[in-house]
Design goal:
There is one protein chain. With about 120 residues, the chain is an alpha/beta fold. About 20% of the residues lie in helices and about 15% in strands. It is built from four helices and five strands. Helix 1 links the parallel strand 2 and strand 3. It starts with a strand and ends in a 15-residue tail after the last helix.
């Protein structure tokens, strides 16, 4: 079974043969942090995800990324099995693991109603 990395906002096309019966769509949405770190791959189902924790459970040959330029599914250029969260985030998603607000000194308010500062 394979792992398909997909951004739901992209114009990707599902691979042929992917159905609701044989695929888990974004299983991380219902998982706790503990479950993300202790789960294994489903035996008889593909997954579609954007979770670096789940991507690292699959070998490179079982991971497919949607390429917007060629409109095809391709394998990553590096081994994803047991790969670190940081490497997957950086190489597949082009995202730093250090929050942007920390890097540029800004304070964001995405999780609450009031800004909180340490004094």
């Amino acid at each position: 079974m394979n792992c398909y990395i997909n951004n739901p906002k992209s114009d990707s096309e599902l691979p042929k043969g992917i159905t609701k019966d044989n695929t888990l769509f974004y299983p991380e949405a219902g998982m706790t942090t503990f479950e993300l770190h202790t789960t294994s791959i489903p035996k008889y189902r593909h997954i579609i995800t954007d979770s670096p924790f789940l991507i690292s459970l699959y070998k490179r040959e079982e991971v497919f990324i949607w390429n917007n330029n060629s409109h095809t599914w391709i394998n990553p250029e590096f081994q994803t099995y047991a790969c670190s969260y940081h490497i997957i985030m950086h190489r597949l998603f082009n995202v730093s693991c250090i929050p942007k607000a920390t890097l540029d000194g800004t304070v964001t308010n995405c999780m609450g109603n009031e800004l909180m500062y340490d004094e």
